[in-house]
């Protein structure tokens, strides 16, 4: 009995200290050139758009990478293409796609001039961004029919950097969309798409937009329940072994 209690204590301590480590699949940080970052080498798709580093943006202490599409002649995005193993992970496991960015132009039309998307090889979840005259962000999503869902203006959020997150639970299904940690749209079904990748930047030659990206990160997030089940399984095996002795 003492051994079981000791094992239970050890497992509890382990779970508290190690709730499950996220596996980072794709990452952009700060003012790093996306084509030569340490963790992820992003591919460039497009041309005729101004890009470059931004340091201490607006005195915030945040560095970023600028993508400024200020004409109707160009478009440019940074893409990371998933491996077959990574694609399977996105289809089966829980994941989060995070983008910490600032819409530079105030106001900025809500169109695909600023576009971020993630696809698991089956569905694609794409969002477009703009801003109101006072800097409050605006967001639109594309649904399963590729129709635009304008989820509105986020009043009193103000100009500056905001964290946008796509979150999906293990086992597939719809995505939940967050702004600054608040769930603002639930059960989002993407449209059919067979290529696995994530991308960010300007998404149309017919639109303009300017955004500074401080962080872009795609990660597999272990769900606490799966870790607990593993621990309980170890505990049960220990109990069975104890009884046989």
Describe the structure.
By secondary structure, the protein is an alpha+beta fold. It has two domains: 1-21 and 223-245; 23-221, Sandwich (Jelly Rolls). Helices cover 19% and strands 46% of the residues. It is built from three helices and 16 strands. The protein has helices spanning 2-17, 84-92, 224-244, and strands at 23-29, 43-47, 50-54, 64-69, 75-81, 95-103, 108-120, 123-131, 137-142, 148-153, 162-168, 175-179, 182-188, 191-192, 196-201, 209-220. Strands 1, 3, 4, 6, 11, 12, 13 and 16 form an eight-stranded antiparallel β-sheet that branches. Strands 2, 5, 7, 8, 9, 10, 14 and 15 form an eight-stranded antiparallel β-sheet that branches. Helix 1 (2-17) packs antiparallel against helix 3. The longest helix is centred in the last third of the chain and has 21 residues, at 224-244. The model is unreliable at 4-19 and 225-245 (pLDDT under 50).
Give the SSE string. Answer: HEEEEEHEEEEEEEEEEEH
How many extended strands? 16
- Considering DSSP H and I runs of 4 or more, what fraction of the residues is helical? 10-25%
In CATH terms, what is the fold-level topology of the largest domain?
Answer: Jelly Rolls
Q: The biggest beta sheet, please?
A: 8 strands, antiparallel
The chain-level structural class is: alpha+beta
Q: How many domain units? A: 2
Mean pLDDT: 88
Give the uncertain stretches in residue-range form.
4-19, 225-245
- Distance between the amino and carboxyl termini: 13 Å
What is the CATH class of the largest domain? Mainly Beta
Rg (CA only): 21 Å
CATH architecture of the largest domain: Sandwich
- Which outline best applies? globular
Number of helices: 3
